[in-house]
Backbone:
C-alpha cells in the first residue's frame, strides 16, 4: 500500500483528496506548504507526492527541486489552477510525472497513483 503525501495550502482540498485516496486503499498524509512537504518527505515513508504548484512561500516545483538536490527521488504528480504550458514544462523538467488541472479529476489522479505504485 502506497503512502501518498498531498501538499496544498488549501487544507480542505488536501483533506478531501486524502480521504478520497484513502477510500481507494492508499495511506495518506497532508502538508500545507512546500517547506512542510520537504520536512515530511525527509523523515521517510512517503511513496508518492501530490503537489500544488502554487503555494505561498515555496511552491511545488521548488519543493521538488530541493528534494531532488538531497537525493530524494520520490515520484510526484502536480496539480494547479494555473496550468499554462510553461508551468507544465517547468514541472516536467523538475521531475513531475504529470500536471493535473484543478479542479482535480479524481479518477485520473487515482489512475496515475496506481500506475506509479505498480
Residues:
Amino acid at each position: 500500500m502506497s503512502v501518498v503525501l498531498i501538499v496544498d495550502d488549501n487544507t480542505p482540498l488536501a483533506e478531501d483528496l486524502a480521504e478520497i485516496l484513502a477510500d481507494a486503499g492508499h495511506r495518506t498524509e497532508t502538508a500545507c506548504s512546500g517547506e512542510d512537504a520537504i520536512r515530511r518527505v525527509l523523515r521517510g515513508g512517503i511513496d508518492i507526492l501530490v503537489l500544488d504548484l502554487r503555494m505561498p512561500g515555496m511552491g511545488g516545483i521548488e519543493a521538488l527541486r530541493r528534494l531532488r538536490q538531497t537525493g530524494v527521488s520520490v515520484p510526484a504528480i502536480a496539480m494547479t489552477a494555473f496550468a499554462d504550458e510553461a508551468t507544465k514544462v517547468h514541472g516536467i523538467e523538475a521531475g513531475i510525472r504529470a500536471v493535473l488541472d484543478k479542479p482535480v479529476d479524481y479518477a485520473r489522479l487515482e489512475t496515475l497513483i496506481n500506475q506509479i505504485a505498480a
Summary: The CA atoms of residues 6 and 56 lie 16 Å apart. Residues 11-23 form the longest helix (13 residues).
